[in-house]
Design a protein that fits this description.
It is found in: Apical cell membrane. Its main location: membrane. Its cofactor is heme b. By secondary structure, the protein is mostly helical. The chain has 2 domains: 220 residues, Up-down Bundle (Four Helix Bundle (Hemerythrin (Met), subunit A)); 46 residues. Helix 9 packs antiparallel against helix 10. It is globular and about 60 Å long. The relative contact order is 0.12. The structure holds protoporphyrin IX containing FE. Protoporphyrin IX containing FE (HEM) binds next to helix 3, helix 4, helix 5 and helix 6.
Amino acid sequence: MAMENLKQFLVVLSAAAAIGFIAIIFVLRWVLHFQDGLAWDGGLAEFNWHPVLTVTGFIFLQGIAIIVYRLPWTWQCSKLMMKFIHAGLNLLAFVFAVIAMVAVFDFHNAANIPNMYSLHSWLGLTAVILYGLQLVLGVGMYLIPVTPVSWRATFMPFHVYGGLLLFASIIAVALMGITEKLIFGLKDPKYKDSPPEAIFVNVLGVLLVLFGSLILWIATRTSWKRPRDQILHSLHTNGGGGDNTKVASALSQLQDGSDAEATGDVRKRSNKADEQAN
Ligand code: HEM
């Protein structure tokens, strides 16, 4: 299916994917080469699961989940199937995040380090809890067939805003964690003396910011939405009234029941437009 600025989309998508992969390689090299590796033994190697799982799951997988509807080669798939993929990737990201939390709490408890004292931990745990809530509400609203169409439409702006806010906040939380770990961990030479590990991990932080920026760019381009969603978006932003021919043609393209929540909303607007016209 045709997409406006397909070339531009592919360039931004490839850059995001490449930067995301490089960030994963960086976090693995950090813990395997500069740190004590990975293990589940209550020690520093157990802590290391925390950055690895948050970067691969909570940041990378969540980023892909956010833009999965935008991939033009998925536009022949039903909306329902894409919703399952979106929800599945978000669920996987959540599972990674929960295991990452267990790793750091377990490490703290084994080493008698207090829990939840830092701003990083406050914002981080809040983000994980809100992410879980977003997941439950998303499934309840958009995957359970009995949820009224009007609820789905009303909740959608909150779902989109909440998702993007959480994604950006989680990257900020990761940057705080990275900085803390470098300050705590680097002793001789210290962080302020810029040893190779510090430079390497600072670059990891820059990569996370770039990945986040590209994902947010893709997610906020209306012209890169699935064509059906684009039609709905323009009907919504144009107020839905006035041009009934456009509304009718949009509706005829939306006969597949998988877009039901949005279709219902457009249909209501179309009826309103009809009422106004009569
Ligand atoms: C601790 C969340 C990423 C480094 C914690 C704690 C939470 C948390 C809730 C508190 C654990 C406790 O008190 O026992 C998150 C979330 C992240 C994230 C949601 C998602 C991006 C990272 C990353 C690093 C990191 C990428 C880099 C190494 C640390 C460190 C601690 C910690 C050093 C122990 C000190 C402290 O409690 O602040 N994290 N974290 N975190 N995290 Fe993260």
